[in-house]
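Q: Sequence in, structure out?
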Amino acid sequence: MPATKELGNKHVCFKCGTRFYDLKKPEPICPKCGADQRQSPVTKPATEKRVRAPARPVAPVEPAEAADAPEADADEDGEDDDDDEDEAEEDEP
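A: Exactly. Output:
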């Protein structure tokens, strides 16, 4: 037989939050603050599930026109075309 059954029912005090067993006594009295657990305020059952509200619809985002345009041509080395013109002018005597 488990030890918890020998100690009675487990309670959590509604006033001070202390956890205790009632030791199979007829009145479940909190040992810390003396509150009678039969006088606890009514609470919602733990089995009741909360339903989440549906998400609000989000307007679709249109892609920017600049993203569709191809990028500027680059050399295979990754250099810009402007550099080639500068080199050509330096080579001429």
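Residues 3-39 form one domain.
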